Amino acid sequence: MPERIGYFAGKQGTLAGRATKRIKVIGGGLAGPEAALQAAKFGCEVDLFEMRPTRSTEAHQTSDFAELVCSNSLKSESENTAPWLLKQEMRRAGSILLAEADAAAVPAGHALAVDRVEFSRRVAERIAAEPRITVHREEVTRLDETDPDVITILASGPLTSPVLAAELQRLTGSDYLAFYDSISPIVDASTINMERVYFAARYDKGTADYINCPFTKEEYDAFLDALTGAENVESKEWEKLQYFEGCLPIEETARRGRDTLRFGPMKPVGLTDPKTGRWPYAVVQLRQENLRADSYNLVGFQNHLKFGEQNRVLKLIPGLENATFLRYGQIHRNTYINAPTLLTETLQLKAHPSVMIAGQLSGVEGYTESIASGMLAGRYAAALAHGNTPTPAPRASANGSLTHYITHAEGKKFQPANITFDLLIPLEEELRKKIRDKKERHRIQCDRALEAWGEWLDSQRN
Question: Does residue 357 register a pLDDT over 90?
Fold first, then answer.
């Protein structure tokens, strides 16, 4: 018997029998599997489509569900931070992929990072164990916007196939906005010179799980000169490099000023070197990739350099002079829709309410944000499948604030967004003047968000 959920059309009570419509989920990344599992949990029959391995993408290396293409981090677990708040809401709502991420966690200080292979394996097991989900390994080339018996969740991600992208463009009549995202390099742990590095977490928050590669000023200057002089991968003439500011290639950041990296991915603040008792001039952090701890990724070191140049430049990092790189950094094209123009607060296309957009294609940015989007889409689709009207996530919550941003931002200037406190409802002016401490302000915002989220969840169970 499907569980009791009162938010479907505001009607209280237990859903009896099967949903009147099937749900078609397109995309086996993060948002798609979460949406499929959520909809199945609420009693719906789901068809989950993934084109890999029949057709791959420029960035994926496997055909696995929930493959993490860039880093392996789902961001901070520090209490009263925006990423923590989003995950806390997701846990309380029963996010299935986040539960599997928790189960596949690897040491990462105050962040949630996962063993990629184990995470994907666990997600695949959850899908295989769900009798209401039928998996189709094939490319979808047509959207069923006129089929009265189908609700479609398009969660095909930033690397949506050209055929499906053209189909979505036909459906929306909207131009796409594109930016370029990058993949960080991964190094073989056995080739790291451990005599030149040290384990630490910034300001000793959490456990000391990060390997830190400390630079002197001279080493930093030499590295910066080599980086800015390195040869990039040639871009096609038709490509317009339009990087997402939250994920700039390191060489692009370095060109903005000699100290820019020291205030970004190479920030040494709070990372005391035990050999000197001081913060280094700059630092590169390495984060554990898997449970075996036999590989580490270079945090924030996404780049667009040729592989040979990467091998030369990255070996100038102290401790990596003899490193073997298991994967070099890459850059790939990410596509997303103009959500403020096209989407409702329940992630439905305004012109075609039976079609929903979730994940990075909708304009959210980041692993956790994509899963959260899929979680909401799956719940909303279940409501529609039962012939009811879904209630949007509350504006005061992190989930609601993120969705509010992508559906209410200025369309002409719209860019993808991670969850930040800037998206949440600000405190009243009088309270802001009274409370000067930023951490205390954030705590109050988190308390309010969790209260609103809890009330929303309770309203669905009554």
Answer: yes
* Confidence band, pLDDT 50/70/90 cuts, at residue 422: confident
Range in 112-116, 418-422, 448-452, 458-462 with the lowest mean pLDDT: 458-462
Whether residue 268 contacts residue 279, with contact meaning beta carbons closer than 8 Å, is answered with: yes
Q: 7-14 long-range CB contacts below 8 Å, 24 or more apart?
A: 7/383, 7/390, 7/391, 7/456, 7/459, 7/460, 8/382, 8/383, 8/386, 8/388, 8/389, 8/390, 9/383, 9/387, 9/388, 9/389, 10/388, 10/389, 10/391, 11/388, 12/462
Residue 441, domain CATH: 3.50.50.60
Same domain, 349 and 421: yes
Distance CA 27, CA 51 (A): 8
Is residue 198, in this structure, part of any structural domain at all?
Answer: yes
Range of the domain at 260: 183-333
How far apart are alpha carbons 94 and 218 in whole angstroms?
A: 50
Q: 348 and 318, same structural domain?
A: no
- Domain co-membership, 314 together with 372: no
pLDDT at 135 over 50: yes
